[in-house]
Amino acid sequence: MLQESMIELITKEVLRQLNQIKSADSDQARPNVLALFTGGTIGLEPALTALTEIRNFPAEITVVLSAAAEKVIGVKRIQEYLGKSVVIVTSCDPYPGKLLRTADVITMPVMTQNTAAKLAGTISDTMLTTLILQGLLMGKPVIIAKNAANPKDNWRIRAGMGQASPGLSQAIEENLRKIERYGARVVDVRLLAVEISRNLGQTKNQPVADAKALAKILIDAAAIKTAYAAGEKTLHICPGTLITPLAVDAAREFAIELIWEQAGRY
User: Which of 7, 45, 138, 169 lies at a 20 to 30 A Cα distance from 96?
Assistant: First the structure.
């Protein structure tokens, strides 16, 4: 088990700052998050918890369930976390093109290896893969939790499913890297709330000053070690983030690449 995660502290700080800088205009439209669920279960609980935090941003969340997700997760479980009023689109419903166009952020809280393989191959033969690829073509922020598709995820290792050959592991990991090269952010589920909130903080519904306030986050050596334990190879640093010298040393020690984002890119 990982030690008390610095990521959790960062998440709380991000959400605290976002709550402080909400617009005084009560009629201002809330940003929209389109959450796409596959039938995976690895990382499902923290993913649902992250969406609960984002709902309190406040943000409007619309859920799209694949046919497998309807069976494995179910509408009732989604409602237990996000409330009975949450809009849920199922595989029997028409393609939610309007929801895609109005979404400020698209997220896939649980991505299976099968879905990762399809996205890596730019195959859009399901509603979910079509929404992801269309969202990327539209330049929308797409944030994906990789745990269910990661061959080296801690859950798989504990369950005895981490014995894949190096060739197979590399092929699956390459799928994740391809998806990132297409423009999506592929992260550990524990970073999901942070990544979504960063992007929501810079949508048209928020003042420009919000992004500056949001960026003032401290990253220390503990956060680097947690990212390493989660299998992260890169760490994106948004403008204004404070990173300690020990964190830089730790990143070098654990071979984690620090990428300083330019203002407006996130």
Answer: 45
What pLDDT, on the 0 to 100 scale, is given for residue 3? 41
CATH architecture under which domain 30-206 falls:
3-Layer(aba) Sandwich (3.40)
Instruction: Please tell me whether residue 56 adopts helix, strand or coil conformation.
Output: coil
Extended strands (E) in the chain = 32-37, 60-65, 87-89, 105-110, 142-145, 185-187, 218-219, 234-237, 242-243, 257-260
Q: What's the CA gap between 199 and 84, in Å, rounded? A: 26
Integer CA distances (angstroms), 193 to 14, 42, 54, 232, in order: 9, 17, 6, 16
Does 72 have pLDDT greater than 90? Answer: yes
- The amino acid present at 257, given as its one-letter code, is E
> How far apart (Å, rounded) are the C-alpha atoms in residues 49 and 27?
27
